[in-house]
TrEMBL record:
SUPFAM superfamilies: P-loop containing nucleoside triphosphate hydrolases. Residues 423-541 form the TraD/TraG TraM recognition site domain. InterPro entries: P-loop_NTPase, T4SS-coupling_protein, TraG-D_C. Its main location: membrane. This is TraD/TraG TraM recognition site domain-containing protein. It comes from the Bacteria.
Length: 600
């Protein structure tokens, strides 16, 4: 039977509530009484209505008229009631604001998470360290008195809850995984392009209201703008042509070009079957023959249509490629059903070259400048490569051009002592749709050391696995020194993988128990995930996680272009470019008066 004299749990709870209420009263009364005493003395001094009162904060709070008898009612009311109360409320508001920015909770738009990186954890990515690193990587900045932030690296965002800018340097390579409409273009691609100090390469499947329209005017002020738009996404006038066979004069180069057509048409899981490999081999052999004889790439389609044509065989033999010629001859003279299947596969891969409008971008054009990657990488020009999703052979040309530029940049860096200065930025937006470079994961291992900064932007991790396979995507993810993960990660396996990479932290757990002898409190420590998979999925728009090699994972507040000081200018330029696209599209679909005259 319980002892009637012992305190009950309910009575203990009542004592706790009373004690907390007392603390609350003291938290208000102590600062308010001191503010009243200060306010009363300040009012007496400013009005000249008496001398300063001795330090009696309680008396000032309860009987201010006794401490300052010379003050009139209005002055006493303002100095000892209104002003101190206003000051106390302002201090409370500032304290609440500070607390909301630094508290460890998981709610609200600016969600912060306990256990993620603080400033000291990512010091190498902040302004001072980035400036020093930029001076060491770029000889042109070594003796500069002032280095602009844009010259130190690519802005990723602010460390969450602070104004400390986090940047990736000129030796980093990045992968960004962000769902559609989560800020990958507005917060990453566009700001990076606008602030790039050297040549810029952008791949995209959109034009209106995208990185193309937002940056084309600004980039035109720092260098020449090249636009390759074979499928007329931006309805751009053809002011350039590029020769994809320029790098195909060797068997390796021809094989790479054929590989782009294969990757654009077949997923990674299907590229190892007989027909895919055989079709790719025929393309590489014909590309080599056309390149050696300085023929346009469209001649390859004529050879594919007539396998009995001996022209490519003769070219290969004349240029010392007897073994390749023998392989081609063996295919041509093999069983008809096998030969026809191989050639039909190759025709399907390169079918886009049958489209004269697409072919015009990759064949010599009179009075049209030729785009030369070797010259581009030594400039501050910009190259926009546009293609539709599932563009097949058209996207193969986009991937081939991007690959050619990056290989030319590598060669230029080697001639320049190892690195490009200024560095080249390659924004591979929608890479899994329009820029399927098969060995991109392998390129990631050395591009950063050459001053070539790729940022591959994907909508999901599985999207990358579909293009490069599980091993390839894992390799690219591992080789990336900067990984940016934004909102909208709906893959539970990937979200859990990220959660495990972020790690655990110690959480203090308090338990209270009641007994006949009273209440006891115990404190213990337990481990829990810093960010659970569901929290990663629920990242709010405008935020992202940054995984930098050798550092704790940091939460970022991303900085979209429309929040920058030059936003109005960028917006106006984007509207002009979008309007121009619309006008060009309308002009193409509106019949000309001459058409009616001809018909009549």
């Amino acid at each position: 039977m319980p002892n009637p004299s012992s305190p009950s749990p309910n009575s203990n709870d009542g004592y706790d509530i009373a004690f907390k209420a007392l603390l609350g009263v003291l938290a208000v009364a102590v600062p308010l009484s001191n503010l009243v005493w200060l306010g009363g003395n300040a009012t007496a001094w400013m009005t000249g209505s008496g001398s300063a009162a001795p330090y009696q904060p309680i008396g000032a709070l309860l009987h201010p008229d006794q401490l300052w008898p010379g003050l009139n009612h209005t002055a006493l009311l303002v100095g000892t009631r209104i002003a101190p109360t206003a000051v106390l409320l302002a201090l409370a508001a500032l304290g609440a604001l500070w607390w909301s920015r630094h508290k460890n909770t998981s709610g609200g738009k600016k969600t912060s998470f306990r256990g993620l990186a603080r400033r000291r954890d990512i010091e190498p990515l902040l302004a001072k360290a980035m400036t020093a690193k930029a001076r060491s990587l770029r000889p042109s900045l070594a003796d500069a008195k002032h280095v602009a932030p844009r010259d130190t690296g690519v802005l990723l965002g602010d460390l969450q809850g602070t104004r400390h800018e986090v940047r990736m340097g000129w030796e980093d390579v990045a992968v960004a995984i962000m769902a559609p409409r989560s800020g990958k273009t507005t917060s990453l691609a566009i700001p990076s392009i606008l602030s790039a100090p050297g040549p810029v390469l952008l791949t995209s499947n959109k034009a209106g209201g995208d990185a193309y329209t937002a940056t084309i005017d600004a980039r035109a002020t720092v260098g020449r703008v090249w636009s390759m738009d074979p499928q007329q996404i931006a309805h751009a006038e053809r002011t350039m042509w590029w020769n994809p066979l320029a790098d195909a004069k060797t068997l390796d180069g021809a094989g790479r070009l054929a590989g782009h057509f294969l990757a654009a048409s077949v997923d990674a899981s299907q590229q190892g079957d007989f027909w895919s490999k055989a079709g790719s081999n025929i393309l590489s052999q014909l590309f080599l023959a056309a390149a050696l004889d300085d023929r346009p790439i469209t001649d390859v389609m004529a050879w594919l249509a007539f396998p009995a044509d001996r022209t490519p065989l003769d070219i290969l033999r004349d240029h010392g490629h007897a073994a390749v010629a023998a392989q081609l001859k063996g295919t041509v003279e093999g069983p008809p059903e096998t030969r026809d299947g191989i050639y039909e596969t190759a025709r399907q891969y390169a079918a886009a070259l049958l489209n004269t409008e697409i072919a015009a971008w990759v064949t010599p054009q009179e009075d049209t400048p030729e785009f030369k990657p070797s010259e581009f990488v030594d400039s501050t020009d910009t190259l926009y490569l546009l293609s539709k999703d599932g563009g097949g052979g058209a996207s193969a040309l986009i991937a081939a051009c991007a690959d050619s530029v990056m290989r030319a940049a590598t060669a230029r860096a080697e001639r320049a002592g190892g690195r490009l200065d200024p560095p080249m930025l390659a924004i591979l937006d929608e890479a899994a749709n329009v820029c399927k470079i098969s060995d991109l994961p392998d390129l990631y291992s050395h591009l950063g050391s050459r001053g070539i900064i790729p940022i591959t932007i994907l909508q999901s991790y599985r999207q990358g696995q579909k293009v490069w396979g599980d091993a390839g995507m894992d390799a690219m993810w591992s080789a990336s020194t900067i990984k940016v993960v934004g909102p909208g990660i709906d893959d539970p396996d990937f979200a859990d993988k990220l959660s495990r990479m972020i790690g655990d932290h110690d959480v203090e757990s308090t338990s209270i128990s009641h007994s006949e002898s009273g209440k006891s409190t115990s404190v213990s420590m337990r481990q829990e995930r810093i960010l659970a998979a569901d929290a990663i999925r629920a990242l709010p728009k405008g935020s992202a996680l940054c995984f930098a090699t050798g550092m704790r994972v940091a939460a970022l507040d991303m900085k979209p272009w429309y929040q920058q000081p030059e936003a109005d200018e960028i917006s106006a330029a984007s509207e002009r470019a979008s309007k121009a696209i619309t006008e060009r599209a309308v002009a193409k679909t509106t019949p000309k008066q001459s058409d009616f005259t001809t018909a009549a």
